[in-house]
Amino acid sequence: MDALLSAALGAVQLLNRITVAGILVTAFALVIYIGLYNRRSSIARNYALVLLCVIGAYLGDLLAQVSEFDPRADSTELWLRLQWIGIAFIPAASLALSDALLRATGDSSPLRRLAVQIGYGFSVVVFALVLSTALIATPGVSTEGLTHLAPGPLFYPFTLYYFGSVAWATYNVFEARRRSLTATSKRRMTYFASAFAAPSLGMFPYLLPVGWPSALPNLLPWVGILLVNMGVGAAITFMGYTVAYFGASAPDRVIKRRMVKYLIRGPLTAAAVITAFVVSTRVERWLDLPGAFVGLIAAATIILMVQWFIDMVQPTLDRLIAGDDAEEVRRLQQFSARLMTTSDLTQYLENILAALCDLLRAKTAFITTCLNDSQDACAAPINVIIGDVAPDDAPGSLPVPPDAVRSAAMLLPGRSTNGANDQPLPSSHTFEAESDFIVWGGYWLIPLRSQDEVLGVMGLAARTAEPDLSDEEREGVAVLVSQAARALEDAAKQRRAFEALERLVPEADDMQRRMAGTRNPAAPTIADFERVPVDNHDDLTQLVRDALSQYWGGPKLAESPLLNLRVVGEAIKQENGNATKALRRVLAEAIERLKPDGARSFTAAEWMLYNILELKIMQNMKVRDVARKLVMSESDLYRKQRAAFEEVARIVAEMEREARRREQQAMRLSSDVGAQARAGCEKEEPAVTAGPSAP
């Protein structure tokens, strides 16, 4: 019986170490995730501080447990004291997180902000006292059960502060949940509130005041510790799922899918690999193999199996995440998977030409979509050439002149080029007889048709002066010509679809930015639906940069969300209703406000930003010429240009706030004038009395 209990105790202790390692991996992965996708949200940034406290506490705990097996026993106390960086700071970090949540609901409190600042200052003092004095934790380590320190005289006042701060922070979170109005935000806040207190409660050093419960079997306290650590791991994952929606400019389904895949590929895989290495040290004696070898094999197998698992369950996972939008998501995935890129089209056409050369024993063949100078395809022509090409020809150049291609494109179906006029075939005809060829300079050319439109021209090196095909060759050429024409038709449809999508991208980006602004626990306000993120400096800077990049004309200026600014609306009146000129006028005024006082200098530091914008944007000079005029390298110019864009965005934001203040003043003035007018009308009206007049 004792042997069984000892084996169970060892298994629980091993599982506890694996759980602690999993918590560390998950917390670190969530910090990275927040840095990648949610760094603009104050809620996410404060949650990252909570995660760093969890990392500090659990890393010290894990290293202290591992150091027990090291002959240098003095390192155990060091790790136990260093883990207090997490214990000391978690109350203040939790309170700051709860304050950020309440502020997102519109409940701002100077008292809470002051309490957060005092809490962080108190945390610094506590950590310093733990490291350098015995006031909170006395010297020495108790090795009974789980290694721990002994309490000092100030430990109990710290306990009151700890639980008082956690209780206040928890109350704030439930208050934020109560203030949530939409069903989605209330559901997410329920997840968050139910898990919020778990990290703080799980990290508190309970063994300092009560010691190890030696009256109980060792297995029971260890099982309790394991369950608490599992709860902390689940809690930070639930909280991370909720925080992932704050400050992220993407649809909810994209955030959910990204978060789930990230957790599977990152923390879950890493935790499985750590488990493999830890377990391999225990099975070494069973398999009579080196533990490191077993661990490497197991780790590699786990990594491969996780990737296979993700590929297998991804379609089902996407449908579950999409919910009611599963059918739309399925169509989007099919569209993405079945798109034909330019490389795919080129490879397919090369295979067709190879089959054509093999069928007709030709040495060279080509397909081109550039039929005349006015055709849209010539902006991005497709020229596919295989076989022998003259060595003096430029790469990608056709072996026939443009006149030959134009002549082939104008060839009517079923009409011979040598004067033999047959009855024309329907316009959808591609190839049936030798009369569909045109002979030009040793090449046979044939147009590739789709309905009434010629999409391209196929050509091959002529084996004879006049086309002379057998029935089998004629049938094979018809099939290959038809396939090439269909491929070009599909590519043209895709190109038109891409052009339509490109026109939608700016609107979609703008919509995602506005959706991100409405993801707060409270009901969205009118400011959340503003089309221009005046209060989000990074987004506004990007919009200003895009507009300035096409200052003298282009879709980034003509279709910019900046056109919805009130200051631009005021400028439209001065530009006779031309919105593009109005935006250009506002940007020019913002650049002019950057201009320092005094005589202009091309070398003074205070003139640098203005000179860059005035020369590059207003005068439309090339980067090389601007750098030469300002005596700087092009790389230095690009760095300073970014700073200039940020300054213009700041000025545009200030101009917009001024316009809003003018609008509010005008509304108040109009309201006051209306009230005075109503009051005047009331005075002019005769008084009406009830009953007979007095004698």
Short key terms for the protein model shown above:
two-stranded antiparallel sheet, five-stranded antiparallel β-sheet, Rhopdopsin 7-helix transmembrane proteins, Beta-Lactamase, extended, 4 domains, GAF, 23 helices, 695 residues, 7 strands, mainly alpha, 6% strand, disordered C terminus, single chain
Description of the structure:
The chain contains 23 helices and seven strands. The chain has four domains: 2-249, Rhodopsin 7-helix transmembrane proteins (Rhopdopsin 7-helix transmembrane proteins), CATH 1.20.1070; 252-332, no CATH class; 342-496, GAF domain (Beta-Lactamase, 2-Layer Sandwich), CATH 3.30.450.40; 530-681, no CATH class. With 695 residues, the protein is mainly alpha-helical. The longest helix is centred in the last third of the chain and has 51 residues, at 634-684. A hairpin with a 2-residue loop joins strand 6 and strand 7. A five-stranded antiparallel beta sheet has the order 4-3-7-6-5, with helices on both faces. Helices cover 65% and strands 6% of the residues. Residues 374-379, 415-430, 522-532 and 687-695 have low confidence and may be disordered.
What is the alpha-carbon Rg in Å? 37 Å
Low-confidence stretches: 374-379, 415-430, 522-532, 687-695
Tell me how many strands there are. 7
CATH superfamily name of the largest domain? Answer: Rhodopsin 7-helix transmembrane proteins
CATH C-level name of the largest domain: Mainly Alpha
If helices are DSSP runs of H or I spanning 4 or more residues, what is the number of helices?
23
Which structural class do you get from the secondary structure elements? mainly alpha
Overall 3D form: extended
Largest sheet: 5 strands, antiparallel
Please list the strands of the largest sheet in the order they lie side by side: 4-3-7-6-5
**Element order, helices and strands?**
HHHHHEEHHHHHHHHHEEHEEEHHHHHHHH
CATH topology of the largest domain: Rhopdopsin 7-helix transmembrane proteins
Mean pLDDT: 79
